[in-house]
Amino acid sequence: MLHYAIARMLWFVPTLLAMALVTFLVMHATPGSPLDPVAEGANPLSPEAQKALAAYYGLDKPLWQQFAIFITKAVRGDFGFSFVYKTRTVAEILRETFPISLLLGSMALVLAVAGGLTLGILAAIHQNRGWDYVSVCLATVGVAVPNFVLAVFLIIIFSFMLPLFPTGGWDSPRDWVLPTVTLALAPMGIIARFTRASMLEVIRADFTLTARAKGLAEGPVIFKHALKNALIPVITLLGPLFAAVGTGSFFVESIFRVPGMGRFFVLSMTGRDYPMIMAVVLTYGVFLAIMNLVVDLAYGALDPRIRY
Amino acid sequence: MARLTPESGTSLTAGPRPLADPDGIRTPGALGAEGTLTARPTSLWRDGVRRLRRNRLAMAGGAVIVLLCLVAIFADVLAPLPYTKTNFGRLNEAPSRLYPLGTDQLGRDLLSRMIYGARVSMLVGLGAQLIVVAIGVPIGALSGYVGGRTDIILTRFIDVMYAFPQLLFVILVMSMLGAGLMNIFIAIGLTGWVGIARQTRAQVLSIKQKEYVEGARALGSRAGRLLFRHVLPNALTPIVVAVTFGIPQAIFTEAALSFIGVGINPPTPSWGQMVGEGQQYIRSYWHLCVFPSIAIAVTMLAFTFFGDGVRDALDPKMK
Fold first, then answer.
1. Please, what sign has the CA dihedral across residues A33, A85, B174, B85?
2. B48-56: which pairs have CB atoms within 8 A and are 24 or more residues apart?
3. What pTM was estimated for this model as a whole?
């Protein structure tokens, strides 16, 4: 276990480096350079001015040195100034927007886990009856339909037809409801599907039969004996779920006008704000890699049958 | 280090031996006379089609897919107006007899744009999968079949790629290449092959140890023939399933990219782009984003049901 944990953590570094390298190379291969004049069709800068600018931005150094500088700065959270919001550094913008995305993501994740587990358990207990169909339907729609499409339907239903929630914004907890639900639906569907399958397997297992045979009530059988064992494979899902919530937030935040990192990312895409894009990609990448690591280690710790 | 498996050890020359038959649908005679197995090499697929036909939800999904393909192919005939035809006198109009689904911000017929949008979605779904398969299968097969150092290097590479959330990577690549249909193919191809490469590698690894492969090798088959005649055909099932699920994934990716504004270049219509532009006016002009949303939802559900059906039909064990 310890050996595995250490090996996994060591692998973490090259993975992050590779991510940073890919991001860096992609950005460098992109046409256009900071040495071009800002206005389109303007006269090019004089060679001396270009040289001075290149020296200022460090662009005259060989590529590997630029990458090394980029990495050392990135480790300290320094991504330079945003191209679009010229007076603000990327780090500033991230500090402002990341907590909002984190709040939205955490709420969505909690809702997804709670809702997904409930649906999955209900479906397994009532296999091939009413609740099962409701759960499977919800899960299929949640998984198959992109969240920006779900958002449109939710707004139509819960803002227009039944004016319960606002169409966007992020001022009061009432504004939080629709974005959270939208973001939660896909992971909720995945969890419900998995929980259902896993519960069905466990319910038929011998130890559940034993628990019933010794006269336990249905409640303890399901929650103490079946669920405990059914949950273990569900934990592996959490890694991909973090990714789903993370990338999902781009769209949800844009539609519901949530001032989070995802919305800024989308805006920076259209504005070709490269420092911003790189910073956001790396932040998400690091965050997801850490979460995957945590999930993997937790999985090993929770399931005594697993030996690394 | 060939492992003994229940289905091995019967006939050494059986060639691409059909996979297990859990439903017992194949004739009982097949077990008695080994010769009939080679005579019916397609029975796995025939059984699969039969099981698929019985799955009503999957058939409904398939019907929708066929319909969408037809719409995509005959868009020029079906669309009442060209998708670029503007009518500045009738902007953002709600559905009417003249414009069945209304008009958009530039007075273009929404129905026509939706019809052409189907073309983009289908093209991306199928085209991107072709690229994904063309990259993923050879890499996975090479990695699994050759083994050794090649395998280690390729697997590490695949693992690193796998750690990157795909959508994030696609967005990154698109920001480099710029919007456009061709670039979407490239972006999805560059990022999507990882999953299929993993699948193929795992399959090839287990199949190359089967006894019929060893038998073929003992009979003097060269590596190429061994790989293409004996290993790959038997590794096909999970690849087909992965492709069936990859198509809606690609369609989703295109819609998502176009939604953000880095996918399809205007004026070419794409459903995702129409939702993205329309949702800004959802309060005043609901029809702008609702109809493309419905189109995306129906398409995704159709492919999901069909994919579930294909998976269950080809390999009931994976259910």
1. negative
2. B48/B310, B48/B313, B48/B314, B49/B313, B50/B25, B50/B313, B51/B23, B51/B25, B51/B312, B51/B313, B51/B316, B52/B309, B52/B310, B52/B313, B55/B309, B55/B312, B55/B313
3. 0.79
Least confident segment among A2-6, A88-92, B113-117, B230-234: A2-6
Cβ neighbours of A152 in B, within 8 Å: 275, 279, 282, 289-290, 293
A266 closest CB neighbour out of B160, B260, B301: B260
Q: Which residues of B touch A18 (CB under 8 A)?
A: 160
Provide the CB-side half-sphere exposure for A124 (13 A, CA). Answer: 25
- A 118-137: CB under 8 A from B: none
pLDDT of residue B42: 58
Structural tokens at position B34: 């080994």
Average pLDDT of chain B is: 79
* pLDDT tens-place string over residues B131-153: 999 999 999 888 888 888 888 88
Residues of A with Cβ-Cβ distance to B300 under 8 angstroms: 144-146, 149
Residues 227-256 on A with a CB inside 8 Å of B are 243, 246-247, 250-251, 254-255
